[in-house]
């Protein structure tokens, strides 16, 4: 089993920055792929960014390219999502997920955190 705990959400104004953290514990070697997803009100849960433990193979949603950065500290089993130039449309619950496939599809991720709310006011 793998446990994921997110933190770092909050209420900010447009243009501000936030950094989300996701701490993993358990059999993390079985889930080398970590993704950040988000789900806005009335919307599907979609991928925001994805990385593997080497940090080489990263992908981003088009809507966040150039503003969000995924990174990791393997010694701390922690993955981060740095979010800059936040917009009201970034408002959502953000989830950390872990799996073993290089995928944008939420169904390919086996483990999920509880989510952290990010609210961006205009």
Description:
The protein is mainly beta and 122 residues long. Strands 2, 4, 5, 6, 9, 10 and 11 form a 7-stranded mixed beta sheet that branches. The protein has a 4-stranded antiparallel beta sheet with strand order 1-3-8-7, with no helix packed on it. It starts with a strand and ends with a strand. It has strands at residues 2-7, 10-13, 18-26, 33-39, 45-52, 59-60, 68-73, 78-83, 92-99, 109-112, 116-121. The chain has no helices and 11 strands.
SSE inventory with pairings:
Elements: E1 2-7, E2 10-13, E3 18-26, E4 33-39, E5 45-52, E6 59-60, E7 68-73, E8 78-83, E9 92-99, E10 109-112, E11 116-121
Parallel strand pairs: 2-11
Antiparallel strand pairs: 1-3, 3-8, 4-5, 4-9, 5-6, 7-8, 9-10, 9-11
Question: Could you give a quick summary of the protein structure above?
Answer:
It is built from no helices and eleven strands.
Major beta-sheet overview: 7 strands, mixed
Portion in strands: over 45%
Radius of gyration equals 13 Å
Distance between the termini: 40 Å
The helix/strand class is mainly beta
| Portion of residues within helices | under 10%
* Succession of helices and strands: EEEEEEEEEEE
Backbone shape: globular
Mean pLDDT: 93
- Count the strands? 11
Highlighted features:
0% helix, 54% strand, globular, four-stranded antiparallel beta sheet, 122 residues
């Amino acid at each position: 089993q793998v446990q994921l705990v997110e933190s770092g959400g909050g209420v900010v104004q447009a243009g501000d920055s936030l950094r989300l953290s996701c701490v993993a514990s358990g059999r993390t070697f079985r889930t080398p792929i970590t993704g950040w997803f988000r789900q806005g009100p009335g919307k599907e849960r979609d991928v925001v960014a994805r990385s593997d433990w080497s940090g080489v193979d990263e992908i981003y949603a088009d809507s966040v390219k150039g503003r969000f950065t995924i990174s990791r500290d393997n010694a701390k089993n922690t993955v981060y999502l740095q979010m800059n130039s936040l917009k009201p449309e970034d408002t959502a619950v953000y989830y950390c997920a872990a799996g073993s496939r290089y995928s944008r599809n939420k169904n390919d991720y086996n483990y999920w955190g509880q989510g952290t709310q990010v609210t961006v006011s205009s």
